[in-house]
Amino acid sequence: MTQQRTLASRLEATRWWGFWLYGAVAVAHVAAIAFGFDAIEYPTKLMLMPALALAAMWALRGSSLDRAATILYLALAFSWLGDGAASFFPYLDDELPAMLACFGLAHLAYIALFAFRVRERAIPPWTLVYAAWWGVMIAVLWPHLGALLVPVIIYGAVLAGTAVLATRGSRITAVGGALFLASDTLLALRLFLPGVSVDATGPWIMATYAAGQGLLVLGIVLLLRRGLR
Would you kindly state where each structural domain of the chain is located, as residue ranges? Predict the structure, then answer.
């Protein structure tokens, strides 16, 4: 009996190794950007979401695959397509619309999770700051968006929706949603605002993105394992 308990505890201890693997890939990717290791920058970027999906699957092993887990994997799949839009949509002259569409679908998946499947608390009043963020960002970027004005307005609203609804899960998911929003804010400023340095923002964009996605998924997995639906 003692041996069975020891084996069970050892198996339980291995449940979270996938998130350490994801963290290692994320650190390698951010370091590649920061120090100019071009040979591994794009490959490590494409490894991020598969590594995070593997971490979630391993942590949820032994659990029945319900709709919440399926929606989570869809969010990661669309995020992966967004990360690799230049490779997955080579026939497009500009991969940015495809990237916005893929990440928009990923955010809609997260929104569905927190709205209907993974929720533990009410939305706090302070999340009104995200509405203010959306208004300020649109006002700042408006003169520079051109034909992308409407898609960016819609994407910004969806992004803010993820950040708001992530507060319904746990503190971990709330921080993850905020970091995801911070990453896309930096990216939008780099893409559309003249004079924003690529070198200065690059590492921070991916550091906040990787941390945000990782915390969102970790928080969701913890809630699912606790049986919150």
Answer: 2-225
Q: What is the pLDDT of residue 124?
A: 96
Q: Give the separation between CA 18 and CA 129, rounded to whole angstroms.
A: 33
**Closest Cα partner for 134 from 184, 89, 168, 98?**
184
A 10 A CB-CB count for 226 gives 10
pLDDT in tens, 21-50: 999 999 999 999 999 999 999 999 999 999
pTM for the predicted model, two decimal places = 0.91
Spatial contact of 28 and 44, defined as CB atoms under 8 Å apart: yes
> Per-residue DSSP letters for 163-213?
HHHGGGT-HHHHHHHHHHHHHHHHHHHHHHSTT--HHHHHHHHHHHHHHHH
- Tokens 């991969």 belong to 95
Torsion on CA atoms 61, 63, 64, 70, rounded to nearest 10 = -60
